[in-house]
Design brief:
It is a single chain. With 294 residues, the chain is an alpha+beta fold. It has two domains: 164 residues, Jelly Rolls, CATH 2.60.120.10; 114 residues, Arc Repressor Mutant, subunit A, CATH 1.10.10. Helices cover 43% and strands 18% of the residues. It has ten helices and eleven strands. It has a six-stranded antiparallel beta sheet, with helices on one face. A three-stranded antiparallel beta sheet has the order 6-5-8, covered by helices on one side. The two termini are 39 Å apart.
């Protein structure tokens, strides 16, 4: 996993930053910053990496992140092609914990929000009516004056603090251990995995890109990513396979080899390990959910 870039930005006019994003692809850099972040994907598909979590994303993906949580919404390969007509869109809110003053959140009335902000250091993904409310509020904020914007954000945080539709993203106890000075060498490893996960990925080549021996690289990667390099590669491949299972009529065998697995048994074993379902169960469950929503 490529190590994250530290991002820092301040608003010259207010304590809240709201941005509407539209680009050929989302920022491909694995990064972190000292702000809280509330982000919704409007257009685009790919793989979402947050802390030690790897999940696919699609329009509607909505996440709240605490400060310094490494993250990346990696658009799929077609978005990076030279003549691609694909676009990504999203809307994001940034703020720091003192956006209402250093003492405001310490008031007794603010305890639920303060506790919620602390829990967001694991990252929280939203579903259901709460996700729809977040989208509505994010789209409305750019059109509010500064005072109304503060009130709406405070009300939204209170709603999120009491919502039962938030799902923790990273493992319990996850802590960002990355250093900005490590970014350049590990960016090469990250790019290597994304460019070759459908083919043969060699541990020795990844270690060489990081400037380490294989043994040292394996220890280093597991310490920083909270998973082995092999598991990281497998999760990227399984995420790709999940998309093929719902977007194509290909057989499980075709999908296994297209996703970089050398044998069907290896694919089935890893798929069950990371999704707790067989490929056929996953495809069937998706089709059932689609039919029930019609």
């Amino acid at each position: 996993m490529k190590l994250p870039v530290l991002k820092n930005f301040e608003s010259p006019t207010g304590s809240l930053i709201i941005q509407e994003l539209e680009e050929p692809h989302f920022d491909p850099n694995w990064h972190f910053h000292p702000h809280f972040q509330l982000f919704t994907v409007l257009e685009g598909t790919g793989t979402r990496l947050i802390g030690d979590s790897i999940q696919s994303f699609e329009p509607g993906d909505t996440v709240f992140l605490g400060p310094d949580v490494p993250h990346l919404w990696r658009s799929e390969a077609p978005y990076f092609e030279k003549d691609s007509q694909l676009r990504t869109k999203g809307v994001v809110l940034y703020f720091q914990d003192d956006f209402l003053g250093k003492e405001f959140l310490s008031k007794p009335e603010m305890h639920p929000i303060q506790q919620f902000l602390e829990e967001s250091r694991r990252g929280i993904s939203y579903i259901g009516a709460t996700r729809e409310l977040i989208l509505s509020e994010l789209l409305a904020l750019p059109h509010c004056d500064d005072f109304a914007r503060i009130l709406r954000v405070l009300a939204l945080l209170n709603t999120l603090a009491h919502s039962s539709e938030g799902i923790p993203i990273t493992s319990y106890g996850y802590v960002n251990t990355y250093k900005v000075s490590e970014t350049e060498r590990m960016q090469k490893v990250h790019n290597y995995v994304w460019q070759h996960f459908q083919k043969d990925i060699r541990l020795g080549e990844a270690a060489s890109l990081a400037g380490m021996s294989e043994a040292a690289f394996c220890r280093y990667f597991r310490t920083r990513a909270n998973k082995t390099f092999t598991d990281f590669v497998s999760e990227i491949r399984i995420g790709h396979a999940c998309k093929l299972l719902v977007d194509t009529q290909w057989t499980v065998s075709q999908i296994a080899y297209e996703s970089g697995f050398d044998t069907l048994s290896n694919f089935n074993r890893n798929f069950k390990k990371f999704t707790r379902q067989t490929p056929r169960e996953y495809r069937s469950a998706y089709r059932t959910s689609v039919q029930s929503s019609l």
